Automatic annotation (TrEMBL):
The keyword Transferase applies. Pfam families: HATPase_c_2. It comes from the Bacteria. One of its GO terms (molecular function) is protein serine/threonine kinase activity. This is Anti-sigma regulatory factor (Ser/Thr protein kinase). Residues 25-127 form the Histidine kinase/HSP90-like ATPase domain. Keywords: Kinase, Serine/threonine-protein kinase, Transferase. Residues 1-29 are annotated as: Disordered.
């Protein structure tokens, strides 16, 4: 690489490298902290129902990434006037599938309820394939 394109070494930082949460509980705590802090700092309204919905969406997306997607490879939460945007990435290329809510196995089925919950609570849900494999699911829970 020509020297003109080189930059100096990065200054050491005391901050640990940012890693995605390993458990849904860790992700929920991160969402609760970020949403509370950003809404307060930006003077955005925050109803308890919005927080509850954002936490449930977070729990479902991270649980699905662990159970069906080979683990959480990325996690992000953002807040703006449009809502709480939660993004979870995993290793799987398989797209989420909604299972019929009523069938002969519904009372005893152990899986298949999370994706419909996410789609019901979020105003916008997007699934993007990642260039190196896997996918990112982003759900936006409205603030108001």
């Amino acid at each position: 690489m020509p020297d003109i394109h080189r930059t100096g070494r990065c200054a050491p930082t005391d901050e640990p490298p940012r890693r995605p949460p390993c458990r849904p509980a860790d992700a929920r705590r991160a969402v609760q902290r970020v949403v509370t802090d950003r809404c307060r700092a930006r003077h955005l309204p925050l109803r308890q129902q919005t927080m509850d919905d954002a936490l449930l969406v977070t729990s479902e997306l991270t649980t699905n990434a662990i159970v069906h997607g080979g683990g959480i490879t990325g996690f992000d939460v953002e807040v703006d006037s449009g809502g709480v945007r939660v993004s979870v990435s995993d290793r799987s290329d398989e797209l989420p599938v909604a299972t019929a809510p009523v069938d002969g196995h519904a009372p005893t089925r152990r899986h298949g309820r999370g994706w419909p919950i996410v789609c019901h609570l979020a105003r916008d849900v997007r699934v993007c394939e990642l260039p190196c494999g896997g996918k990112r699911i982003t759900a936006v829970v409205p603030l108001g």
